[in-house]
Design brief:
The chain is of the alpha+beta class. It has a single domain, classed as Winged helix-like DNA-binding domain superfamily/Winged helix DNA-binding domain (Arc Repressor Mutant, subunit A, Orthogonal Bundle), CATH 1.10.10.10. The protein has helices at residues 11-19, 22-32, 38-45, 49-61, 82-85, 88-102, 175-181, 184-194, 200-207, 211-223, 245-248, 251-265; strands at 7-8, 65-69, 76-80, 108-114, 119-121, 123-127, 139-143, 149-150, 227-231, 239-243, 273-277, 282-283, 286-290, 302-308, 311-316. The chain has a four-stranded antiparallel beta sheet, with no helix packed on it. A three-stranded antiparallel beta sheet has the order 7-11-12, with no helix packed on it. Strands 1-8 form a two-stranded antiparallel ribbon. Helix 1 (11-19) runs antiparallel to helix 8 (184-194), helix 6 (88-102) packs across helix 7 and helix 6 (88-102) packs antiparallel against helix 12. The longest helix is centred in the N-terminal third of the chain and has 15 residues, at 88-102. The termini are far apart. The relative contact order is 0.21.
């Protein structure tokens, strides 16, 4: 019998234990942009030195970054490990969403280039087997052998202020996405939507979120246009919460989190959830493809250019 104080320990939940945190995502963004030194992480993120120090320590402990002495023995470099590099598809899917939904509201543009074909590109989430672009309505899911119920121990994480205002040299590339997916509670609400859990009481049972926290997250997601509320009874406060088109387009980010969690946190029993791409009938594995040539985008074959009002900066991922 299911204990009423347990939740589904799916790979998304496990991934959020590591990356469901705004400072972690800000630091990982900078690591993908080629930052390696402590002082540069502080300068580029706008975070307090104590916060950067604590998150770098956590990322080293989680084997997302490795800590290596600098030549000469003064200080350290923080380098992406294979586990850390494997978050790059998630970063690309966040960038894709911001390009699609918030380009007009931003004071800079990010252009992504694929070195293999030499073209400007948009990252496209496609099925590994049939190469069709993934639509959440074309994905069926079922419980996998690794699905277990756990009693959550949620660490309290506090981060105040607007992500977009914290970097002295400019806003993060994916500020809205960092704010959303750096909030574990909001991400778990979005996860619930994609598994057809749509009502307040059902979401609360699925996440064990305090009712005041859940109310706040639902209100915020509705205001952001991610969800819309549909009354289902005569009571004024009874709603089904449904994803908008903008909300459904978060699916590739959720899927990237799921795949990262499957790869690095599944045990010998296998993944907690199994997905099928219904158009081709195969197990679903998402690949991030170049919109120009269709080949896979990876950290080693991608570069970016930032064009901002009044100035221009560039670099490599």
């Amino acid at each position: 019998m299911k204990h009423d104080r347990t939740i589904r320990a799916c790979s998304i939940w496990r991934a959020l234990e590591v990356v469901g945190d705004v400072p972690v995502l800000l630091i990982m963004e900078q690591a993908f942009l080629g930052v390696h030194g402590f002082d540069e992480f502080v300068a580029r993120t706008g975070l307090a030195r104590s916060v950067v120090n604590g998150r770098l320590k956590k990322l080293v402990e989680e084997d997302c970054l490795s800590k290596r002495p600098k030549k000469g023995g003064r200080g350290f470099h923080y380098m992406l490990t294979p586990k850390g590099r494997d978050q790059f598809p998630n970063a690309l899917m966040m960038l894709r969403w911001q390009h699609k939904w918030e380009a007009a509201s931003r004071d800079f543009q990010v252009r992504l280039y694929h070195a293999t074909c030499g073209s400007a590109t948009e990252p496209v989430p496609v099925c590994h087997c049939c190469r069709a672009e993934i639509n959440p309505r074309d994905v069926a899911w079922r419980e996998g052998p690794g699905l277990v119920q756990v009693t959550p121990a949620y660490e309290r994480r506090r981060f105040c202020g607007d992500v977009g205002s914290r970097r002295p040299g400019g806003r993060p590339l994916v500020d809205t996405m960092i704010e959303l997916f750096g909030d574990r509670w909001a991400t778990l609400v979005v996860r619930a939507m994609f598994t057809r859990i749509n009502r307040f009481d059902e979401i609360q049972r699925d996440t064990l979120m305090a009712t005041n926290i859940l109310t706040g997250r639902l209100d915020r997601l509705v205001k952001q246009g991610i969800l819309h509320a549909v009354p289902y009874s005569a009571h004024a406060d009874r709603f089904d919460y449904r994803l908008t088109e903008k909300g459904r387009d978060l699916y590739p980010v959720i899927l990237a989190l799921l795949q990262w969690g499957d790869r690095w946190f599944s045990d010998e029993r296998g993944p907690p959830v199994l997905l099928t791409h219904t158009p081709c009938g195969n197990d679903l594995k998402m690949v991030v493809a170049c919109s120009h040539c269709g080949d896979e985008l990876a950290l080693g074959n991608s570069s970016f250019e930032i064009q901002a009002t009044g100035h221009r900066a560039s670099g490599e991922c």
